[in-house]
Specification:
globular; hydrogen peroxide; 14 helices; alpha+beta; metal ion binding; two-stranded antiparallel sheet; 27% helix; Catalase_AS; Catalase HpII,  Chain A, domain 1
């Protein structure tokens, strides 16, 4: 039952009457109840107390990462095939099986490291999280626009994010802090190469790629599994910005990407992405010079081609940003039958962290919110907790029984949809790096694959950011870039040698310049005002 049905608003063409949260009609929303019209106010102002106390609690804790976001609803249409083969050969996930089968989706785009109202022109990976409301429950495909990541072990994730966040003393983001971490984390060289190139600032959300980043598995009806990587390719094309272009846009509109997405959908220019997968046999592939579970690496397209499996169209804007975008909650562990986890150490860590964050941020019963609730019937023995506004029960089940097994009419286990996937392990429990780290080869390949203007922009952004870092950090980064590609390291070294250090310059991680000049300019060009 919705609010209109509950309070009678809008029925039979009647007026839209303002009420309190208790449903009491509000006859005066302009004035407190006071002793005389000048006050004081009285304590029994229930309407005011309810209104103001709710206002005091309007915000939930901001996401530690992916705080700034935009979202939209849409539909995913399956091709029924993966490349030229029936998709059932590789996975029994129902949403992929039939050509033309449509599944509702909600997508949240975001920046990763910056706050909820930060400019959308800042250099940062972009989040690309998709919630599929399938007949078997929700599937969350949680990823970024860039197809790799900084680290390969989840234990390092808090350290990475701390280095990206503002200095805990000055509250100013520092390029030196970021590169202090990256220089001591060789596997991050590849991600830094992408991030400080134009790929670090997508032009908008509609014209950027998406990726699952981690390696997952598909499981077929026989319980056999393959490794998969997911890729969203925008049918609008891909566009990126230079640092200078981004600064110009930021001076005019720091909400440009959110506005672009909203207005495109409003005018009926619905953005579309094709979902493609790469498939690899499920083992460690000793013939490769990298580990396929290492999320700092790309799977070469010539060896593992991108195979289309469906197309997504975003065709509806949120009605309420907070209820649909801010409260939307995603988790890498939210998989349906036919999809499974790989042994990717980052994926294992994310699977705990993401859903745990939502329980803290939104609440124990966040899955009862409409934006997060599955579209299929939910029946659990989980009860109570904060903001439990219904119980996950179905008609015909004994309401006295909230446990399983039971002979008194409780919930029963579901039949299996296919054979279990049962990977086998025979190894010691250790704390060790993977065998094939190969931290620099793909970073060099990425550098050489860039166009000339992209390499020029990369070098400029790196030099501007590293110029005010400690020389120890500069030297380590030059060493790592040189290991990736001799020309790469040489150009960064020459750029740093020729760039004079600007005393007091913060060295923003975006590659921005003249940050200290901006501080002085604000004081020098501003107009004096008389007190009032």
């Amino acid at each position: 039952m919705n609010n209109e049905q509950q309070n009678g608003n809008g029925q039979n063409g009647g007026p839209q009457i303002l009420t309190t949260r208790q449903g009491h009609p509000v006859t005066d929303n302009q004035n407190l109840r006071t002793v005389g019209n000048r006050g004081p106010a009285t304590l029994e102002n229930y309407q005011f107390l309810e209104k103001m106390s709710h206002f005091d609690r309007e915000r939930v804790p901001e996401r530690v990462v992916h705080a700034r976001g935009a979202g939209a609803h849409g539909v995913f249409e399956a091709y029924g095939t993966v490349g030229n083969e029936p998709v059932s050969k590789y996975t029994r996930a129902k949403l992929f099986q039939e050509k033309g089968k449509q599944t509702p989706v909600f997508v949240r785009f975001s920046t990763v490291g910056h706050g909820g109202h930060s400019p959308e022109t800042l250099r940062d990976p972009r989040g690309f999280a998709t919630k599929f409301y399938t007949e078997d429950g929700n599937w969350d495909l949680v990823g970024n626009n860039l197809k790799i990541f900084f680290i390969r072990d989840a234990l390092k994730f808090p350290d990475l994010i701390h280095s990206q966040k503002p200095d805990p003393v000055t509250n100013i983001q520092s390029g030196e802090r970021i590169f202090d971490f990256i220089s001591n984390t060789p596997e991050a060289t590849h991600m830094a190469t992408f991030l400080f190139s134009p790929w670090g600032i997508p032009a908008n959300y509609r014209q950027m790629q998406g990726s699952g980043v981690n390696t997952y598995k598909w499981v077929n009806g026989e319980g056999k599994a393959v490794l998969v990587k997911y890729h969203w390719e925008p049918l609008q094309g891909i566009k990126n910005l230079t640092q200078e272009q981004a600064a110009e846009i930021q001076a005019k509109n720091f909400n440009h990407a959110t506005q672009d997405l909203y207005e495109a959908i409003e005018r009926g220019d619905y953005p579309q992405w094709e979902l493609l997968v790469q498939i690899m046999e499920d083992h460690d592939h000793p013939e490769l010079d990298f580990d396929p579970l290492d999320d700092t690496k790309l799977w070469p397209k010539d060896q593992f081609p991108w195979l289309p499996v469906g197309k997504m169209t975003l065709n509806k804007n949120p009605v309420n940003y907070f209820a649909e975008v801010e409260l939307s909650a995603f988790g890498t562990g939210v998989l349906v039958d036919g999809l499974d986890f790989s042994d990717d150490k980052m994926l294992q860590g994310r699977t705990f962290s993401y859903s745990d964050t939502q329980r803290y941020r939104v609440g124990t019963n966040y899955l009862q919110l409409p934006i997060n609730a599955p579209r299929c019937k939910v029946a659990t023995n989980q009860r109570d907790g904060q903001m439990a506004y219904h119980q996950d029960m179905v008609e015909g089940v004994n309401p006295h029984i909230n446990y399983e097994p039971s002979s008194l009419g409780g919930l029963k286990e579901a039949p299996k949809a296919g054979k279990d996937h049962e990977p086998q392990y025979n190894a010691r429990l250790v704390r060790q790096k993977i065998d094939r780290t190969n931290d620099f080869k793909q970073a060099g390949e990425t550098y050489r694959n860039f166009e000339d203007w992209e390499r020029d922009e990369l070098i400029s952004n790196l030099v501007n950011t590293l110029a005010n870092a400690n020389k120890v950090i500069q030297d380590k980064m030059i060493e790592n870039f040189t290991k990736a590609d001799a020309d790469y390291g040489r150009r960064v070294a020459e750029g740093l040698k020729n760039k004079a250090k600007n005393t007091g310059e913060v060295g923003a991680p975006s590659g921005a310049t003249k940050t200290e000049e901006g501080v002085k300019q604000a004081g020098e060009v501003s107009k004096e005002a008389k007190p009032y």
